[in-house]
Design goal:
The longest helix has 14 residues, at 434-447. An eight-stranded parallel sheet has the order 7-16-14-12-8-9-10-11. Strands 22-20-18-17-23-28-32-33 form an eight-stranded mixed sheet, with helices on both faces. The protein contains 14 helices and 33 strands. The protein folds into two domains: 3-204, Glutaconate Coenzyme A-transferase (3-Layer(aba) Sandwich), CATH 3.40.1080; 219-447, Glutaconate Coenzyme A-transferase (3-Layer(aba) Sandwich), CATH 3.40.1080.20. α6 (219-231) packs across α7 (243-251). By secondary structure, it is α/β, with parallel strands linked by helices. The radius of gyration is 23 Å and the shape is globular. Helices cover 27% and strands 24% of the residues.
Length: 448
Amino acid sequence: MTRSGPSGGRAFNALNTSAPHTVAGVVWTENDVIRLPIDKLAQEFASRLHGTGGRLFIPGGPGEPLGLRDAFLRTPDLAAGITFVGAHVPGINRTDWAGLHETARAEGTFLSADWRGSFEAGSFALRPMTWFQAWGWLGTTPLDAAVAVVSPPDAQGRVSLGVASDLSPAVLARDLFKVAVINPHMPRVQGPLYDLSAFDLVAEDETPLLAYEAGTLDPAFDVIKGHLQSLLTPGASLQFGLGKAGVAAVQALEGLKGLRIHSGMVAGPLQAVLDSGALTEVITGLAAGDAGLYALCGRDPRIRFEPSGFTHDIRTLAAIPKLVAVNSALEIDLFGQANAEFQGGRQISGTGGLTDFLRGARLSEGGLPILALPSSAKGGAISRIIPRLPQTAVSVTRADVGLVITEHGVADLRGLTLDGRAEALMAVAEPGHRDALANAWADIRKTL
């Protein structure tokens, strides 16, 4: 018999068949369910895509198929000619998929030091876009095959995308060759479910899921946490990004009540916040952490996973009352423009959901679009509030920045004049840099 894919498209008679069928050199007969070992799956992709420029979707976050990566690393020629497509996140995903073979290629929406070499060599193509735009891109860009790491099936044969339910649904809705990699470490969560029979092929892998450590707060972010806490009121919904700003945002919830999380991802000390009773609901698309966090996501009924087409849609965000979006940036200038992607003129990251959530929070009734960052770097030697960004380094326009929080206070830029914005930002800058900023602003002001 044949099974159609999740999109209802063409069928493929490899999953469950009464006729002999050969996959990656393995012959399966008489109602055997094909569950390839992960090495054989790499061979199967190579036979389908080798040398043709075939495009394979690789999910990110803890959904990254590390066992498949390891199989390609053991036999690099299997990756020859394949283009690996995905939206992998710096600091979480470390694999340089384009680096698996000299003829392999990759495409993504972030840049990272981990795949900087491939970017400079021209084998990694960066597509600058927001996370919601990435959802649309993955729903339409040419693809030949896709892989998804899933939970073990339930009694009805359904599997969960687990803690990586963000972008994969955009791809799994398409008519292409789809492979489910069953991993016992992937929890079954409240979120998208798929019939295992809807996949064209099934593989098995026991490689532990990718782990991520958000780190502990430094003194500046510990103070920023207190400023954030003063802005949260009952009924608010919190969004936060990666890194120390995210840890500060989560810890700011402790001791409060009647709050929600609506975020593209969750990380950090979520268990303690749930135990404190601060949260009534958590909606996210991805969780990045350790095995304890993943297990929590599979057992706590307050946590629900939704695709990025829902979590990042500005229509969803605008309809959430009191949405507090807390993100960070590398630097911000006296106009209120922020840089989240460039360091010394070199691209080092991407925008992700930054502008999606800042704009959504601005439209939310009672919402707060926040950028939180330490006022300085290098022990105070470098100000992170600067006179003016280079034109090529603007990740967030001044119209999208609402509140800026440093350890020195909260600068609410909403509705302020041009000079008022500059003055508010100087007031939260590192004190030792304020005079230089004031002098630079006086010079800039004369040219406007």
